[in-house]
Amino acid sequence: MALRADDLIDRRRLRRKLTFWRVAAIGIVALGVIALSTWFYGDDFTGSAVDHIAKVKIEGTITEDEELIKRLETIRQSSKVKGVILSIDSPGGTTVGGESIYEEVRKLAGDKPVVAEVGTLAASAGYMIASAADHIVARKTSIVGSIGVLIQYPDVSGLMDKLGVKLEEVKSSPLKASPSPFKPTNDDERAMVRKLILDSYDWFVGIVAERRKMTREQALALADGSIFTGRQGVANGLIDAVGGETEAVDWLATKGVDAKLKVVEWKNTERRGGFLFSKAMAQTIGSALGLPAYSGDVIHELGADRLFLDGLVSVWHP
């Protein structure tokens, strides 16, 4: 019996050792696969170990985006990045969000040539960011423009009357917390808001005139909220050429960037928004709705993120 007990103990020890080495082997293989993937498929990861052209996608509703700004700064500091393509497909967003990204792109353009490649749409704050690039290309049927600023707020006072709900408030001054969705806006409140709008609009028109080498009068003529196709954009001086990535790379070549360099997308590697707004959650909902796996962020695709914009916005359709 003693021998059999010893045999059992030895077998258990052997199993533990085998389990340990199996786990270790799996870990080593996994690390090897990651290393090989990084080496052979650098475009699936942030950055690259060889000289390349960095591509950054700016899509959807624009808000203040610390991750994107950090990514652009990392690209600026990378000695391996020889040129940058901003791939823009956005209806706009908050004015502050557009301003912060615009300033970061201008900083980046101080060290590396930057070209904007417009997809379906670069309107309002989307066009603001595109104008920060040194060169803009867009498809013939792309939409650009919608230069302007707005602020919108609901008036639910009629609904409150129907429900028998009254608002009582004590304010330090008449314009405090105005405009309010709980009562109609008066002339003084509208005048205050208009001053905000016109000040930001003046700044927006100024950067368009500066970046597109127009007179202020020329910029103002285009800044009435109108949108333009890519072909119209070329004619009006809002973009430089019709085309896509190939034309963007060709322009970079005129700035000394080797056109044979690989275009590598620098992606957002941070998880943002928690599970409710995560890509995994979006794909789960999409599958339940019968949407394809590549349908992306459901909330983003439906445009519901625009419902939560606050403050001054530069957006084609809020």
TrEMBL record:
Please name one Pfam family that this protein belongs to. Peptidase_S49
Regarding protein family, the annotation reads: Belongs to the peptidase S49 family.
For molecular function, the Gene Ontology terms on record are: serine-type peptidase activity
Report TM segments: 20-41
What InterPro entries does this protein map onto? ClpP/crotonase-like_dom_sf, Pept_S49_SppA, Peptidase_S49, S49_SppA_C
Question: Which Gene3D superfamilies does the record match to this protein?
Answer: 2-enoyl-CoA Hydratase, Chain A, domain 1 (3.90.226.10)
- Positions in coiled-coil regions: none
Provide the top EC class: hydrolase
What EC number(s) does this enzyme carry? 3.4.21.-
Q: Which domain of life is it from?
A: Bacteria
The biological processes this protein is annotated with in GO are: proteolysis
The answer to whether keyword Hydrolase applies is: yes
Source organism of the structure:
Mesorhizobium sangaii
Q: Tell me which residues make up the Peptidase S49 domain.
A: 110-254
Name assigned to this protein: Protease-4
Q: Which UniProt keywords apply?
A: Hydrolase, Membrane, Protease, Serine protease, Transmembrane, Transmembrane helix
